[in-house]
């Protein structure tokens, strides 16, 4: 049976003889390559440990090197979190290393770079921490708005991950915006693609779309102009707190608690209430500019809000 | 085995091994570099017990290529345009020759990444089934099965082209 198969295959190879290519290598090229091989072999032989005393010493050095490497790896593993950047509202950034040049401007704006390759612009940031965990760069955000641009693949870490109270974001190389609060995380992607994870659900959020943790399954198309305005607004440190008059222009896109608020002047605004206090309510007004937490004095609202 | 013996092997097999590496890496520089590495390793690890020296050298080359492939995560066989074809073909027929071969390799790769190298090793490098089995690291039975599949794929997709090419030569 095998012989038969071989015969059939050989016959087939014969038929293909017309498309056969004879390997060809000129004598000159051969000589050149052989010389290179000899040089490379000599170089490798030169770094080979000799026998006898030197061989013994080389082996001892190898053992020491292996033990040192194991100790270093053990240290790296046990050193779970190395804080490389910490920011808290109204405090200056501290604990910076790994070539970070992040700095804070007045109030809650942050602009700078992390590990040379990540540019960040931020507003209304309550707390931002960056750390290395298991060779991954991890950003922890409690609340605030962050535009992040990852510029290069040559980093000092394996992956970039962002943790918020309600989601995890895995960055593939992109420019995107995060709007984080304790109740919700919104991600809008301007360039590239990111992966988000909430509980067991994972989604890829692509360029020109946005997602929020309050509506895990839905990825929505974003208006390009809105996105552009939003990103440039934050990068140019425009005031992220809109006045009440301009709120009317915003479209409510939040899938959580959507409300209509009637203002003193009779106009309606749309948004999601994310926090209620005695004299204030906190409204999120969608991904359109200025995508922010806005604090509205409840006394200036005529009829409160309607579900 | 000593250095003159390795040199003899180089003279005998360098062209064939380079041909295979060139086909698989799609780069003359990479193929030359890997070919040098094949013989540097041969010098380093030579052993008089090595039988089937041809298969041994090809298996070093194949393993180095796999290592290289894992680095670039890309297996593309060289296009005929960047490769010097043998002189025996005339210019007119060479075009058909190049196109058909390119298409065949492309088709084989679509089915199984291993089919391309096997096809080149058998057809161009004239390795036996036993030698291919040693190079690829599978049994001869598997190589025969692979080659049967290759035969079926080519007959199914290129039978007319091959017949035409054969007629041209007759």
What does this structure look like?
Chain A is α+β, with helices and mostly antiparallel strands. Among the domains of chain A are: 148 residues, Jelly Rolls, CATH 2.60.120; 66 residues, SH3 type barrels (Roll), CATH 2.30.30. Helix content of chain A is 25%, strand content 39%. In chain A, strand 14 and strand 15 form a beta hairpin. The C terminus of chain A is likely disordered. Chain B has seven helices and no strands. With 170 residues, chain B is mainly α. Classes of the chains: A alpha+beta (307), B mainly alpha (170). Chains A and B meet through helix 1 and helix 2 of A and helix 1, helix 2, helix 4 and helix 7 of B.
Based on Cα principal axes, name the global outline of chain B: globular
Give a short account of the largest sheet of chain B: none
The figure for the number of domains of chain B is 1
What is the multimeric organization of the chains shown? heterodimer
Strand segment tally of chain A: 18
Name the helicity range of chain A.
10-25%
Q: Report the mean per-residue pLDDT of chain A as an integer.
A: 65
The number of E-state strands of chain B comes to 0
| Helix/strand class of chain B | mainly alpha
Return residue spans of chain B where pLDDT drops below 50 for at least 5 consecutive residues.
Answer: 74-95
* Average of the residue pLDDT scores of chain B: 76
SSE order of chain A = HHHEEEEEEEEEEEEEHHEEEEE
Report a brief summary of the structure:
Chain A is an alpha+beta fold. Chain A has helices spanning 2-15, 27-46, 53-78, 224-235, 244-247, and strands at residues 81-88, 103-104, 110-114, 118-133, 136-150, 160-163, 168-171, 175-180, 185-191, 193-198, 201-206, 209-212, 215-221, 258-263, 268-276, 280-284, 293-297, 301-306. Chain B has a single domain (3-169), classed as Butyryl-CoA Dehydrogenase, subunit A, domain 3, CATH 1.20.140.
């Amino acid at each position: 049976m095998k012989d038969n198969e071989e015969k059939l295959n050989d016959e087939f190879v014969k038929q293909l003889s017309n498309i056969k290519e004879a390997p060809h290598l000129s004598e000159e090229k051969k000589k050149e390559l052989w010389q290179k091989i000899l040089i490379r072999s000599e170089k490798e032989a030169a770094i080979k440990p000799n026998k006898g005393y030197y061989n013994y010493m080389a082996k001892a050095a190898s053992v020491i090197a292996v033990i040192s490497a194991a100790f270093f790896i053990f240290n790296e593993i046990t050193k779970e979190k190395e804080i490389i950047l910490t920011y808290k509202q109204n405090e200056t950034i501290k604990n910076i290393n790994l070539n970070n040049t992040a700095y804070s401007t007045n109030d809650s704006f942050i602009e700078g770079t992390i590990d040379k390759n990540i540019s960040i612009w931020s507003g209304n940031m309550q707390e931002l921490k960056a750390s290395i965990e298991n060779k991954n760069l991890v950003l922890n955000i409690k609340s605030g708005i962050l535009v992040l641009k990852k510029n290069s693949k040559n980093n000092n870490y394996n992956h970039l991950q962002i943790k918020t109270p309600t989601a995890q974001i895995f960055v593939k190389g992109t420019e995107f915006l995060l709007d984080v609060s304790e109740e919700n995380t919104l991600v809008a992607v301007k360039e590239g693609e990111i992966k988000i994870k909430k509980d067991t659900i994972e989604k890829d959020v692509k360029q020109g779309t946005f997602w929020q943790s309050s509506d895990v399954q839905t990825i929505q198309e974003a208006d390009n102009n809105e996105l552009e305005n939003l990103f440039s607004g934050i990068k140019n440190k425009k005031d992220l707190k809109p006045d009440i008059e301009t709120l009317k222009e915003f479209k409510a896109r939040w899938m959580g608690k959507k409300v209509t608020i009637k203002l003193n002047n009779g106009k309606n605004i749309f948004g999601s209430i994310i926090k209620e206090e005695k004299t204030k309510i906190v409204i999120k007004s969608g991904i359109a500019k200025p995508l922010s937490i806005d604090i509205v004095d409840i006394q200036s609202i005529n009829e409160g809000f309607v579900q | 085995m000593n250095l003159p013996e390795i040199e003899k092997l180089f003279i005998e097999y360098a062209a064939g091994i380079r041909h295979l590496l060139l086909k698989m890496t799609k780069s003359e520089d990479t193929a030359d570099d890997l070919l040098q590495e094949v013989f540097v390793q041969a010098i380093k690890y030579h052993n008089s017990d090595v039988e089937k020296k041809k298969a041994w050298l090809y298996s070093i080359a194949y393993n180095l290529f796999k290592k290289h492939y894992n680095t670039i995560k890309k297996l593309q066989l060289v296009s005929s345009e960047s490769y010097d074809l043998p002189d025996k073909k005339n210019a007119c027929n060479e075009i058909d020759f190049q196109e058909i071969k390119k298409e065949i390799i492309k088709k084989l790769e679509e089915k199984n990444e291993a089919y391309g190298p096997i096809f080149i090793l058998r057809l161009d490098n004239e390795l036996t089934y036993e030698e291919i089995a040693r190079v690829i690291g599978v049994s001869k039975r598997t190589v025969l099965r692979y080659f049967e599949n290759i035969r079926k794929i080519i007959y199914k997709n290129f039978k007319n082209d091959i017949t035409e090419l054969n007629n041209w030569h007759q």
